[in-house]
Amino acid sequence: MPVNCTFKLNNRETSTLVCTGYGTVEAFSGQKHGRDNPDAVTIAKIGPIPRGTYYLVDRQSGGLLGRVRDALAPYVGSTERTKWFMLWNPETGDMSNIKGVMRGQFRLHPVGNEERSEGCITLVNPAEFELLQRFIRTSPPILPVPGSTLKAYGMVTVK
């Protein structure tokens, strides 16, 4: 059964990601003055993920260089990117034009050593992310993503 999650932008330091059948986890999106600030979605690398519905799909790795970066990430201050999820917008794919500003490559992942988010939904507790990603992956991705060949584990609605 597909997973259904909700994340609310609340103008606070953190918000909650609520996933049916799993529960609530502490998370945030964006950084600095844009953290969880819905008025900052047009600020690239600062603002949070724009409101909308996103499909939860396995994160794609781009070519040989992407695979090398993914393999080295845990050793240079990032997290294990192979466990991350891509948040796919069914209307615009991995990139969106918001009032003339290109935003995209939004992911669901745990916080890293730099404790930043450039618009991804970032879980505060890496151990909680590990449990959540296992829960999400208990069933294979079967939900068709409109306009693509991708299959999703479920959906995240950002309010």
From TrEMBL:
Protein name as annotated: Tlde1 domain-containing protein
Family matches, as InterPro entries: Tlde1_dom (IPR021225)
Domain Tlde1: 24-138
